[in-house]
Each structure stands twice: as C-alpha cells, then as structure tokens.
Amino acid sequence: MAFTGKYILESQENYEQFLEAIGLLSAKTDHKVVTEVVQDGDHFTWTQSIPNWTWSNEFTIGKECELQTMKGAKFTANVIMEGGKIKIQFPQYLFTAEIVEDKLVMHCTTPGDAGLVFKRVNTRT
Fold first, then answer.
1. Are 125 and 35 in contact (CB under 8 A)?
2. Is residue 80 a contact partner of residue 68, using CB atoms and an 8 Å limit?
3. End-to-end CA distance of the chain, in Å?
C-alpha cells in the first residue's frame, strides 16, 4: 500500500514552537523520530518512536476511531482520506499526512488566526 513503510526524519519546521503550543516542550528531543506505517486496505497502524518512547495508533479510514494523544489521553475522531491525504482532528491540532515523491510528509496545524504549522518530512528507509 502507498503509506506502508518505515521512515526516518529528514527535516522539520516549527518543531519547538509546536511542542510549546501543545504543552509538550519538555518532550523535545534531538533523536531522529522513526515512523512505521502498516496499511492494510483502509486500516492503518501508525507508530512513532525514539529511544525509550513509542506512540502508536490504529485507525480505519472513514470510521470513528479511539486514538491516543502524545500525552496518552484517549479521544475519538473520524479519520478521513481526502485527495490522498490522511486527516485526523486531534484535540489540539489537525494532523495530515501524505506521500510526496516517496517521502512521508506530515503537518500538524494548531487552530485559530495565529495557527502554527509544524511540518515533518520523512524519508523511506
């Protein structure tokens, strides 16, 4: 499937500002995040990890799913695929992900007029 693969962080923009905006500045790390995606049709397992920390969610496109924030809080969201992009409304930001030239490009956008966009580009390994 298009998203299936293991990716390593290549570049990111507004990382520190995003962590500060969602109250996670203490989680800042210099480790390169590894993202592993397993896609089976419309079902996904999405895992991000660094040494001593792993965050994983399972979801199905077009269905309401129980997910977990980076802080461990559970929430429910409808996961959609629009124009080849996965979209999930997290409590503090909108998450989108797409494959661009075999790279996993993720955006996290905080709400409001002063919305901040955190962008992460990941290379397939």
1. no
2. no
3. 15
